[in-house]
Amino acid sequence: MRTGSEPTTARSPLRMRLWLSVWGLLWTAGGTVAFALASRPGWAAACGTLLVIVMVDLVLVVRHIRQGPHYQPGRDVPPYEPDRG
């Protein structure tokens, strides 16, 4: 719910989340491979779990980017009255 106190041009930082997810994807994939080659199965499993989480986040971010700005109010949408109840 919009309260009227946020800027009308506020947008979610999806592009930043996209690049942070790509960065995390590279590091977790590298960590999984490195720990697997070093015979550290526990650490490889931990990095593999993080890899799955990062991949899910990356898919969601790309999905939101592809949806476009239709889910965000534009400048012509007035703010709602603040909830005083």
From TrEMBL:
Entry superkingdom: Bacteria
Protein name, entry field: DUF6343 family protein
